[in-house]
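Before relying on records like the one below, remember that each one covers exactly one chain. Contacts with other chains, cofactors or solvent are not represented anywhere in the record.
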Amino acid sequence: MDLYDSTGNLVEALTNGDSQMIASSKCPSLLGSKDRDYLLSSTAEADQQVKISDLEGKVIGLYFSANWYPPCRNFNSLLVGVYEKLKSNGCNFEVVFVSSDEDLGAFNGYRESMPWLSIPYSDLETKKTLNRQFDVEGIPCLIILQPDGSILHDGVEIIYKYGVEAFPFTKEKLEELQREERMKHESQTLTNLLTNSGRDYLLDPTLTRKVPIDSLIGKTVGLYFSAQWCIPCAKFTPRLISIYHKIKQSLEEKGRGDDFEIVFVSCDRDQSSFVSYYATMPWLALPFGEPTIRNLAKYFDVQGIPCLIIIGPDGKTVTKQGRNLINLYQENAYPFTDAKLELLVKEMEEAAKRLPRTDYHAGHRHELTLVSEGNGGGPFICCDCDEQGSGWAYQCLGCGYEVHPRCMRAVDPGSVEQR
């Protein structure tokens, strides 16, 4: 996503779509109340209070988060690393935690992992005011306040994408990073994506043979970010293995069996998990713990797994939505190009004309209606296979239950289980 439009205006996740400015003198004062002119320091500090006035002239990150929400805990560990690096570099930056925790105990426990400042848990009014002021609709949320009063609402995305390099989070700095990113993508090759100074190979499933990365040049390659501990990965990996074999078989029948390959990019937590998980896979892999893995996740802005990035024969990125395309079109998605997807959409439109307008599904007791994106539908999570869908769906107009047309198991209305 471009952070600035063609006129140089900041594109931010605001309800009204406009960037905001607040008087620079008001930035710190928003953090206090008539009865409080301080913030809580980290629990590691001997002095538990810091004057709000001490934040004058600093870049401030308002961090809306909660211990009970896993995405917050995941982002928190990343933000801690960025914060400590910036502070060690002497950067004029501070973070202020705005808690959405359910009780004081959870707040205090979560604070123990944070090296920055916090608004006291008991000051509900200030927390509500900040949520309203900055239109916070979800967590984690990181609002960057500049000393000049300008505001950046996409702090979480920026930290995920650029890390410490984004500081001081100004328009000029982010534009510079975007230019560098565009240049990297324009010069992208499979070789410079997957190699490092000491390694020019990938592992095969036996973990004993080294496969030269150059042997993949000219092929369509899927980079599969996944991990054994991830429940959605456990569901998607068997499906991907099946589709992989079908694509390879189809290509072999055409004498082009080597045109497609997948490379496992492990997000596992230890070597043994990597080894046992990779033992289930038929494709190649980057060695566990490679710095290349972290670099690839950052380069492709991977914020969740499983994730399948498709690289074309020319070494350029075809799509970051490989997982969704596999779920929607199975092996027919290959080679994942725009031209192929346009053809598949047309075929889906034609197939939809032959589907019944309404039907009953074995997994739901209400009648389902066939809908499309232009007729009451839209992106959805299939209630039968738990994977994303778009385009056509069978939807319960009463309760919102939705399934892929391919997941429909039509039954007679009288035989539907009453639940």
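The chain has twelve helices and 20 strands.
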